[in-house]
Amino acid sequence: MPARNEGRYDHLFAQLRRRMAESGEWDRICAQLRQQLNESGWRDDFKNRCKEELARTNEGVSFESLMDEFRPQAEAAVSPAVKEHIKSMIRRYVESQVES
Amino acid sequence: MATDFTKGSFGCPHVASTFEDETNKTSTMETYRKIALWRVQRSQVVPNPAKRRKVSFPTCETCSSTMLRPFVCLGCQFTACWKNEHIKDHLGETGHILCIDVNSGSIYCRICCDFVYHSKAHRVNIAASVAAEERSTFFQEVRTGSREPFKPWTATGKEAAVLDTHLYVPCQARRGLLNLGQTCFMNVILQSFVANPLFRNYFLSDKHNHKLCKTDDCTCCELDIVFSEVYSGTPGPYGPASFLATTWRSTELVGYSQQDAHEFFISTLNQIHSKTRGSTIFQCICVVHSTFSGLLQSDVKCERCGNVTTATDPMLDISLELKDKGGSAVGTELTLFSCLRKYTQPEKLGSNQYSCDKCGKASHEASKRLSIRKLPPVLSFQFKRFEHKSGDKSAAHKIEAPVRFPATINMAPFTTLFMEAKERDSQGNGNADAASFPHLGPEAIYEYDLFCVVCHEGQIDNGHYTCFARSHDEWYRYDDDKVSHSSLGACLGSQAYMCFYVKRRLEYEPYATPSYKKAREAEAIKEKERERAARMREVEDDLLATV
Fold it and tell me: Origin, by domain of life (chain A) (predicted)?
């Protein structure tokens, strides 16, 4: 019964998300991610790429078109080490919140 | 499109019309105030996340999901999520035009189909953020009323009249500096001073007028002259000959040979400080110390008895080693972060370097740890690239390895407060101290933005200095008299020798009575004295009348 299972997980996911936000865990993981991305030069690299793109085009580029263009590159450019570290932080939190 | 720069307001016309209507303007500013408060409370710097004050997160009014990136409609305060486009749907359905991204304070305009800029909204956002941060800072007691909240200056009365009669002259404030004979080391440091927002504000507000100063060989006057020249609007490079001459007369850095830029930097700062009237040895408020002065704390711990001896030293900049005692590890990338971590790491002291006061033995196990007790408004880093072996300059060599540094840096993890709080928590101390520091202030007070990078190419005695400096959000490269538009990427890709960062927020001296309060108290006392004297005279007059 896929429909019922989906609904159940949606509810769990929403609750987890709320808890993660209110306890500050989401912000903490986000801050850690931001710091690691900054340290690895990722943040400055993409800021630079976006600025160069803006300088190239004569008419204005909208925020959303910039996002559409750079999001895939940006996601791919995150170092595997950072990805793993953040994923493990999330996994640890989820495991602490869910009774097996 | 409103583009009248002199009226001080330009950007998206739809935002502009919001500010033209009084009721709209008031409710908009109130919205900014509320979201700034929420945003600041959410981003507290907390060494122990478990102790963070709980912040309630709004849910999307359309889909009820908890919003990590909430948006608020400016027309009706409707809150919805961006991810599922519910805020855009709302704008379309209601005909409202603008909504705000709570995390950044940026405005999205339905008609422009984009995030838009408007100078007034930008200013309101910053003002609301600063006000919210003031209320929740760890150090300052705006809450208890010991200091008035910050109000941005607006011209009134006479000032406004004067400003009205003045012509606004466009000035890029970027001028090349002529090389007067191997003086590129001086030129890059002068450019770093020109790009320094605090120095710029000091000299442009006439705090040291070279025409009024009576001191001879005053380096501060020379710097004032440089600022006047750069901001004169005269095109073409300027030759800082009198600055150079004054340097020759005041220091041992004489002659036309290449000097070390960092040495020149420190020497010039000391010159400016000593020539400033009223400069003091402790807690000096001259422009140099107000701008660059921070406090470094060193804690020496006796491993045997745990006794910690603390000493603080003032500092004007931070010099970072690039090599370990055994040479840096192969494969590890050199970054500003890694250098700072090494700088603040506990370091084992040699066996006879420390003898513990408490347990009295010449301790073989002592460790020293550095941390930043007070962050300066402008943080200057030097990467020690030039190794001089025992004072023999000819045997020196340069470390060419590039160091990666960021455009913004959060210095919280390297501060004494943060490091101590982390230590306390890891030791499981649940005492009153730890609880009274639930947070160490809003994130913004620890953030710094890069504004100048000094680079060196070539050998030690046969090299050339150039620098990059930022003007708003654009980077320029300065090569003596040649100034060219560059990019953040080019700047970050260069081989840096010195980096200058400016703090995003400035603070007042903590635990000090503000000078305006002292002035008010003094005035109140004088007033009482005057009244008392007047009454005494009345009494005397009455007595005389009866005689």
Answer: Eukaryota
All domains in chain A, ordered by first residue: 28-97 (1.10.246.140)
Per CB-CB distance under 8 Å, the chain A contacts of B470 are none
ipTM of the complex: 0.88
Q: Which residues of B are catalytic?
A: 184, 464
Question: pTM, whole model, 2 decimals?
Answer: 0.89
Beta B318-320 vs B378-383: how paired, if at all? parallel
Q: Residues 39 to 68 of A: which have CB under 8 A from any B CB?
A: 39, 41, 43-45, 47-49, 51-52, 60, 62-64
Alpha-carbon distance of A26 to A89, in angstroms, equals 10
Residue of B56, B28, B35, B194 lying closest to B120 (CA atoms): B28
Tens digit of pLDDT for each residue in B228-287?
A: 999 998 889 999 999 999 988 887 666 667 789 999 999 999 999 998 888 888 888 899
pLDDT in tens, B130-154: 888 888 776 665 556 677 778 888 8
Q: Which residue of B has its CA nearest to A29?
A: B49
Measured distance CA(A98)–CA(A13) in Å, rounded: 11
> Is B66 in contact with A38 (Cβ distance < 8 A)?
no
